[in-house]
Write a structure and sequence with these properties.
The chain has one domain: P-loop containing nucleotide triphosphate hydrolases (Rossmann fold, 3-Layer(aba) Sandwich), CATH 3.40.50.300. Helix content is about 30%, strand content about 25%. It contains six helices and eight strands, in the order E-H-E-E-H-E-E-H-E-H-E-H-E-H. The strands form two sheets. A six-stranded mixed β-sheet has the order 2-3-1-6-7-8, sandwiched between helices. It has a two-stranded antiparallel ribbon with strand order 4-5. The site of guanosine-5'-diphosphate (GDP) has 18 residues, from helix 1. The site of guanosine-5'-diphosphate has 18 residues, from helix 1.
């Protein structure tokens, strides 16, 4: 990987059936299917973009199970550190070292909209940038090809501002509407965060080797 390559881990969360798996498939493979199996555990997809003449961006998209983190909790990963046996919940592994998040809801389903707040709070309680700021997080009002909407645009707008989202937009994974554009906004935010990290590293500050870089994905 050259120095102008950027690798980011991006989480895709939200209630069951809002379109998370469809989004990941659409964005990484440019395909859409009406029939998706319920995701079991966590699926990964890689999206590679030529960001500029000299920069590549690789996004590792983490698609969480429909059963949500509840179902993942009993799923413990065993590891050996310092000769000691430890257990890490899948939930922790899922959130670890992520640079950004996409929270989706279904515009025809008000419950999925109100649950977006729980997803955001869950995210912010488990993950922050090294400077303590919340990680960039987009709110996607998906299935905008359907009507009627169960929430108004004003409601979504207020909700997005009140809950500290980077921004929101309506999307249709089915019709491929606003997907690339929304992800581009997220990448720009991650790129500017990683540039801030780099500028910090040239200020002669003490380098805390205990701190993991959170703006790039590190293998667990
Ligand atoms: P997940 O449980 O959040 O991963 O949701 P899926 O990606 O499995 O999608 C659930 C259902 O919604 C599937 O039947 C998809 O085809 C459908 N779906 C996803 N995105 C859209 C969309 O933008 N518009 C419409 N009409 N249906 C969608
Ligand atoms: Mg799914």
């Amino acid at each position: 990987m050259s120095s102008r390559d950027h690798l980011f881990k991006v989480l895709v969360v939200g209630d069951a059936a809002v379109g998370k798996t469809s989004l990941v498939q659409r964005y990484s493979q440019d395909s859409f299917s009406k029939h998706y199996k319920s995701t079991v555990g966590v699926d990964f997809a890689l999206k590679v973009l030529q960001w500029s003449d000299s920069e590549m961006v690789r996004l590792q998209l983490w698609d969480i199970a429909d059963e949500q983190s509840e179902a993942l909790k009993p799923w413990l990963i065993q590891s050996h550190i310092d000769g000691q046996e430890r257990f890490t919940s899948m939930t922790r592994l899922y959130y670890r070292d992520a640079s950004a998040c996409v929270i989706m809801f279904d515009v025809t389903n008000a419950t999925t909209f109100s649950n977006s707040q729980k997803w955001k709070q869950d995210l912010d309680s488990k993950l922050t940038l090294p400077n303590g700021e919340p990680v960039p997080c987009l709110l996607l009002a998906n299935k905008c090809d359907l009507s009627p909407w169960a929430v108004s645009r004003d409601q979504v707008d207020r909700f997005s501002k009140e809950n500290g989202f980077t921004g929101w937009t309506e999307t249709s994974v089915k019709e491929n509407k606003n997907i690339n554009e929304a992800m581009r906004v997220l990448i720009e935010k991650m790129m500017s965060n990683s540039r801030e990290d780099m500028s910090l590293s040239t200020q002669g500050n003490y380098i805390n080797l205990q701190t993991k870089p959170s703006s790039s994905w590190a293998c667990c």
